[in-house]
């Protein structure tokens, strides 16, 4: 099932992660300008220039470069090379996964399942590069504790089209939200079949999924939110407390408390809890990370009922509504890289598992009025 990571050592970290993360961002801010004026990005004035976003060819080139130049072994494979029964996107693009690390537990890191949510790709490429090159004790600990399965671009077709969905090539031209397609009677799209089978091969201990949201203000203060923390089956909700004796209900909240605390040190990041429609907790079963937590057995590929906890990140700003804010690119990516590093190191050291899950209530959020499920809203106190 889960995360039986034995804490190898515990200590408080200070500047190491900040320093390495600054190096991980490809485009630093110009010297002389106030780099981080406050959590006020992106903005409607920040013009979205999608030509600077990593496209599919750019992804393939960067993965190749990382594989060739890494100090530690990074293996880049297509799912065709892995040998899944379905291995290409709907439009026939290769689906890529990069692995790094020698640890006994697998970790699944996925980005850009929604094609118009770009920085999951760039954030994961940054982290992959660090995992492949950084010799510091923390990155060494990560490589020794885990084997990482990094999927920087889950939805290459949607990425090329700058749309959320993939488009079925069966003549229907139906648009499929890949993050609602892992479910009983679902799996309409090739990408879902391919990555699901790969998930059953990997049996990860936990997963992290990177998204974008629109511009958002913090409930109560009105401050710009730069980053929201999500769990696609709501803690304390209709579903999650019943899985694995409530273990994921606790651990997913501990993960978020840890990220919230660690990133609060950075003045340009402002975090809240992901909610739908202002005051609803998300509780959908067809999301990829939901199906992972539910231990979905599709096509008899998961007969042992493997499941794993998972959380997702939402960076504010989206290419589709023009709110991405090109000037915020560096900060938008860096907050994901920092959140990934802090969460992964915290899991490896056991700091996450020692967090007080009840402090999840302290992460800013609107008063919860209900749960947004696949079949409508369930009011609180159902
Ligand atoms: Zn998304």
Automatic annotation (TrEMBL):
Secretion signal span: 1-37
Keyword Secreted: yes
The keyword DNA damage appears for this protein: no
Gene3D superfamilies given in the database record: Zn peptidases (3.40.630.10)
Entry-linked Pfam families: Peptidase_M14
Necessary cofactors: Zn(2+)
Localization annotation: Secreted
Domain Peptidase M14: start-end pairs: 52-382
UniProt keywords, alphabetically: Glycoprotein, Hydrolase, Protease, Secreted, Signal, Virulence
InterPro entries referenced in this protein's UniProt entry, alphabetically: Peptidase_M14, TAT_signal
Family: Belongs to the peptidase M14 family.
Protein name per Swiss-Prot or TrEMBL: Peptidase M14 domain-containing protein
Protein source organism: Agromyces marinus
Organism classification: Bacteria, Bacillati, Actinomycetota, Actinomycetes, Micrococcales
């Amino acid at each position: 099932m889960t995360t039986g990571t034995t804490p190898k050592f515990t200590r408080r970290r200070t500047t190491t992660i900040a320093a390495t993360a600054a190096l991980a961002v490809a485009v630093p801010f110009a010297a002389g300008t106030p780099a981080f004026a406050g959590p006020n990005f992106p903005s409607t004035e920040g013009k979205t220039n999608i030509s600077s976003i990593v496209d599919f060819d750019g992804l393939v080139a960067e993965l190749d470069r990382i594989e060739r130049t890494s100090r530690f072994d990074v293996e880049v494979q297509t799912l065709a090379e892995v040998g899944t029964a379905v291995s290409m996107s709907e439009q026939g693009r290769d689906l890529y996964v990069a692995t790094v690390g020698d640890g006994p537990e697998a970790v699944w890191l996925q980005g850009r399942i929604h094609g118009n949510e770009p920085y999951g790709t760039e954030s994961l490429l940054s982290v992959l590069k660090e995992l492949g090159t950084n010799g510091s004790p923390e990155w060494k600990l990560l490589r020794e504790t885990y084997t990482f399965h990094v999927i920087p671009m889950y939805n290459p077709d949607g990425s090329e089209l700058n749309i959320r969905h993939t488009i079925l090539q069966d003549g229907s031209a139906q648009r499929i939200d890949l993050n609602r397609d892992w479910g009983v009677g679902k799996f309409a799209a090739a990408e879902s079949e391919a990555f699901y089978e790969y998930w059953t091969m990997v049996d990860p201990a936990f997963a992290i999924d990177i998204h974008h949201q629109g511009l958002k203000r913090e409930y109560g203060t009105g401050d710009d939110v730069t980053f929201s923390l999500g769990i696609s089956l709501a803690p304390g909700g209709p579903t999650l407390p019943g899985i694995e004796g409530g273990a994921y209900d606790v651990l997913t909240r501990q993960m978020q408390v840890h990220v919230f605390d660690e990133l609060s040190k950075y003045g340009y990041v402002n975090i809240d809890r992901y909610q739908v429609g202002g005051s609803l907790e998300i509780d959908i079963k067809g999301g990829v990370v939901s199906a992972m937590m539910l231990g979905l057995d599709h096509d008899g590929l998961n007969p042992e009922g493997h499941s794993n906890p998972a959380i997702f990140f939402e960076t504010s700003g989206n290419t589709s509504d023009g709110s991405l804010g090109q000037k915020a690119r560096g900060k938008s990516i860096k907050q994901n890289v920092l959140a990934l590093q802090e969460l992964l190191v915290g899991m490896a050291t056991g700091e996450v598992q020692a967090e007080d899950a009840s402090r999840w209530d302290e992460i800013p959020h609107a008063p919860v009025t209900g749960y947004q499920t696949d079949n409508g809203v369930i009011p609180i106190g159902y």
